[in-house]
Design goal:
eight-stranded mixed beta sheet; 28% strand; 2 domains; Alpha-Beta Plaits; 289 residues; alpha+beta; Ribosomal Protein S5, domain 2; globular
Amino acid sequence: MIKLYSYGKINLFLDIEGKFNNGYHSIKTVMQSIDLHDEIILEQMDNNQIILECSDPKIPIDIKNTCVKAASIIKNKYNIETGLHIKLKKTIPSEAGLAGGSSNSAALIIGLNKLWKLNLSHEELIDIGLMVGADVPFCLMGGTYLAKGIGEKLLKLENFIWNNILIIKPNFSLSTAFVYQNLLPEYYNFYSNNEIIKYIKNKRYIDTVKSTANTLEKVVEEIYPEINEIKKLLYKNNAISSNMTGSGSAVFGMFENEKTMDDAYNNLKPIYPEIFKTKTINKGYEFIV
């Protein structure tokens, strides 16, 4: 048996640079791991099946699930004939822009490399991750990264450290495909003058926090004005900055100290039950057993 934590992420910055001929968008984003995590237990079975149990009934447990997809890819690629029982305990909200599914599959890839004694290289792990999704390579590494292309071109940045973050998940979810389908060319390179990468490299943390931005908010706020209302609430409760993460629907607020974060948490918990205290970390997964 192997037990792992898979850590979520927020996008400190996200801008759209253009569109590829295949229809995918070219992005420029700074992804940051956070300590909000799910728990994954992997056990071998005598049969040749992949069985997934999940604590969240809304999560698919067939090949649509990134864990099942990743396990199937590995089984087929390396001719594994044993079965696999996956137990997934969810905390990271789904369809929220927090990379819950991507981080789950990344942890599973790492776990199976050990469970099945595959001895795969870093490059082989990354290649498998890319077959599952564009965010998976980042989740295999974790920390603070600049990502370009569709998210697969990664450059390690100085570790960004911030301990007082609130994440609010409203009672609606968003699919990445839906958000990008509604993205207008007028929003390309919207934040091209933003200097957040320079601030991160120079460890100017307050400047980093004040420079967080996400172009995809422009799309989502047109359809779901509640995103903007959540940001206003976070600012009203003394957040230094607030943005939607990824393609939504979760919104994060960054606070100067633990007291202001705790006060905001207590004020907003009755309004938004799915609210989480978190902080930045420098890893995408962790072996527990």
